[in-house]
């Protein structure tokens, strides 16, 4: 039966945003027995499309981000089970690799910066082993002999975000089809424009769905806003809810390793090269990902200087990078927040009560792939009425002045 704009769609949980976070949430919600509807004109074509997929809570630790570390470590611990569950359901090809990470320094100042970071990591009980360059080159023979510092981080792994997204979407559609639901009403390829409320004049009462770009309404018991930077564009957000998201663009490259250079490396390499970070992530399919810049210039296109810098600095780690075939350069914006931590959970009103029917999961900044399993878990628990106070510090309303009652 075809739908006209006057036929509302209905579901248990509408997830706005089909990046890896929205997909992960839809997956766990569906496994928990909810009928889900994922709304995105182009699933997995935003930040997920660019992401390298490092599962790196230790090497991506930043000073003053200990709260975030609790979340990143909890999610890293969930990744093996998350990957296994997908494999058990028939989707094993997500590029989950438990190979280690090497942190490398190119000059004396880089060595000092890595040593200071290692001290901070050690104070937090994180396992980082110092290696000699000879030891590092035993592990990765193509590393440059000119490097001056190497640390081994055994627990920082990787996954292929595009493969994860494709696997989850296929899993969502297959399960929905088994329950007799249509594919185009499970993954709805259009834009969500506005939240619908029980009383449209008042944003305090229960959220009851979403208005789509094509005029259709989606009626849902719960709506999850998981569309990254797009969250602030949605109409009908609770009055005075501040979602302080800013775009932090990253340029990233994909290259093919010629047969004679395989395996170029097995570990993920994270370099500090004359003060600039660069990483190189080897994939199962003989490609590598080199990234990533972090710029706040608001420009969506790939920056030529960034491409030059990434290739130059990656060659300082592995000179053979010069012989690879450049396949792709991509730029995408990550959704940054003032404290670099996500906006995750329900929204509290001024009376201390949560606004029913509405959940938020955005602002994952540089950690969307890593944080997918824990975000999916936390949101699914909230859907079931379970709130773990450990995660209250990531509430989406923590930057909002008191939400006003109407
Ligand atoms: N997490 C890697 C990046 O944002 O570049």
UniProtKB/TrEMBL annotation:
An annotated GO BP: thiamine diphosphate biosynthetic process
The keyword Cell membrane belongs to this UniProt entry's keyword annotation: no
Matching InterPro entries: FAD-dep_OxRdtase, FAD/NAD-bd_sf, Gly_oxidase_ThiO
Protein name, entry field: glycine oxidase
EC number(s) given by UniProt: 1.4.3.19
Any one cellular-component term (Gene Ontology): cytoplasm
Annotated SUPFAM superfamilies: FAD-linked reductases, C-terminal domain, FAD/NAD(P)-binding domain
Pathway: Cofactor biosynthesis; thiamine diphosphate biosynthesis
GO MF term set: flavin adenine dinucleotide binding; glycine oxidase activity
Residues of the FAD dependent oxidoreductase domain: 12-382
Pfam family, one: DAO
Reaction catalysed by this enzyme: glycine + O2 + H2O = glyoxylate + H2O2 + NH4(+)
Assigned keywords, A-Z: Oxidoreductase, Thiamine biosynthesis
Enzyme class: oxidoreductase
């Amino acid at each position: 039966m075809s739908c006209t704009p006057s036929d509302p769609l209905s579901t248990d949980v509408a997830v706005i945003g089909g990046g890896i976070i929205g997909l992960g949430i839809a997956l766990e919600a569906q496994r928990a027995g909810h009928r889900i509807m994922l709304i995105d004109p182009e699933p997995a074509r935003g930040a997920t499309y660019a992401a390298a997929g490092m599962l790196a809570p230790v090497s991506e630790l930043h000073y003053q981000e200990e709260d975030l570390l609790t979340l990143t470590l909890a999610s890293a611990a969930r990744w093996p089970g998350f990957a296994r569950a997908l494999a058990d359901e028939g989707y094993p090809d997500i590029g989950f690799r438990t190979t280690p990470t090497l942190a490398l320094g190119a000059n004396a100042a880089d060595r000092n910066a890595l040593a200071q970071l290692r001290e901070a990591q050690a104070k937090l009980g994180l396992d980082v082993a110092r290696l000699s360059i000879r030891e590092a080159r035993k592990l990765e023979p193509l590393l440059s002999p000119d490097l001056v510092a190497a640390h081994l981080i055994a627990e920082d792994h990787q996954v292929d975000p595009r493969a994860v997204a494709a696997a989850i979407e296929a899993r969502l559609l297959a399960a929905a089809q088994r329950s007799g639901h249509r594919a185009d009403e499970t993954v709805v390829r259009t834009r969500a424009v506005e939240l619908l409320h029980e009383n449209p004049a008042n944003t305090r009462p229960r959220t009851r769905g979403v208005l789509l770009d094509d005029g259709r309404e989606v009626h849902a018991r719960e709506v999850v806003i998981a569309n990254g930077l797009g969250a602030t564009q949605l109409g009908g957000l609770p009055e005075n809810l501040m979602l302080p998201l800013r775009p932090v663009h990253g340029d990233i490259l994909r290259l093919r390793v010629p047969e004679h250079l395989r395996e170029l490396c097995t570990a993920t390499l994270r370099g500090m090269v004359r003060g600039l970070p660069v990483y190189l992530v080897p994939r199962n399919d003989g490609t590598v990902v080199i990234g990533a810049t972090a710029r706040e210039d608001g420009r969506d296109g790939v920056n030529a200087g960034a491409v030059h810098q990434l290739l130059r600095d990656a060659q300082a780690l592995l000179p053979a990078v010069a012989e690879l075939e450049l396949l792709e350069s991509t730029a995408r914006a990550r959704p940054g927040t003032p404290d670099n931590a996500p906006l995750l959970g329900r929204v509290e009103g001024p009376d201390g009560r949560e606004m029913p029917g509405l959940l938020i999961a955005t602002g994952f900044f540089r950690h969307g792939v890593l944080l997918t399993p824990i975000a999916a878990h936390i949101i699914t628990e909230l859907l079931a009425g379970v709130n773990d106070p450990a995660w209250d510090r990531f509430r989406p309303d923590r930057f909002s002045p008191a939400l006003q009652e109407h």
